[in-house]
Amino acid sequence: MAQRTRPSSSPAAAEKETTTGAVGAAIYSNWLLAVYDWWVLGIVSSYAWRCRTSSILLPFFRQYVSSNHLDIGVGTGYYLAKSDLPASTSITLLDLNQISLDTARARFGRPHVQTIMHDIFEPLDPSLKFESISMFYLLHCLPGPVERKLGVFEHLKHNLTADGVIYGANILGSQVRHNAFGKIILAGGNKKKFFDNHADNATALESGLRQHFQDVQCNVVGAIFMFKCSQPIV
């Protein structure tokens, strides 16, 4: 079920990359994924964003993952691999980077995992329904403004079951205190265009989520915005 695309060097394709998540997705090469858990989920999460993966983000992921789950922005597949899911769990991986999809699928190490190479700004097949959808460390990689990023929920909510949940964690750029380490990572990421989150703030994100879901629960830990939404407004 993997959807594969060929890169294009045309001006139109270059413009499209700046208006989708392509720039942020492109940095996930084999070498980066080899150090991703140690650097991003370990050092940076703990000391720049002040939100430990092992004690905060992983338990949050485990709390809401269901027997029919879609993971968007898969990274290395860390969260799924660390969640001790039953063998019967149906998992679909979605990303704009085929290397990430292949890495996460191999790490999870179970047959029948579905992969979809897809631009999250484009709607999915509405017949695809999931009881849970996770989006960890994704929104800050999407091109802004905040209102445009939140537009992805306009169609993702149609891929949730009636009692489903969508949840995630993302780096805030404003209205939050950043330490010196965090400021360096934030500035570098935005300069290189694999972050676009200088304007991302908890107030705007929560307000936008409430336009799409009746039940919205949000929390800020360090510089990380954590959200869990259910009861889609359709």
What would you say this structure looks like, in words?
By secondary structure, the chain is of the alpha/beta class. Helices cover 38% and strands 22% of the residues. It is built from ten helices and seven strands. Strands 3-2-1-4-5-7-6 form a seven-stranded mixed beta sheet, with helices on both faces. A hairpin with a 2-residue loop joins strand 6 and strand 7. The radius of gyration is 17 Å and the shape is globular.
Provide a concise account of the structure shown.
Helices cover 38% and strands 22% of the residues.
Secondary structure category: alpha/beta
* Count of extended strands: 7
| Spatial strand order of the main sheet | 3-2-1-4-5-7-6
Determine the N-to-C terminus distance. Answer: 27 Å
Q: Please, how many helices?
A: 10
Average per-residue pLDDT, rounded, comes to: 90
Uncertain residue segments: 1-20
Rg over CA atoms, rounded to whole Å, is 17 Å
Detail the topology: elements first, then pairings.
Layout: H1 11-19, H2 22-26, H3 30-48, H4 53-64, E1 68-72, H5 78-81, E2 90-95, H6 98-108, E3 114-117, E4 130-136, H7 146-150, H8 152-156, E5 160-171, H9 180-191, H10 202-209, E6 213-221, E7 224-232
Parallel strand pairs: 1-2, 1-4, 2-3, 4-5
Antiparallel strand pairs: 5-7, 6-7
Key structural traits:
alpha/beta, 7-stranded mixed beta sheet, single chain, globular, 234 residues, 10 helices
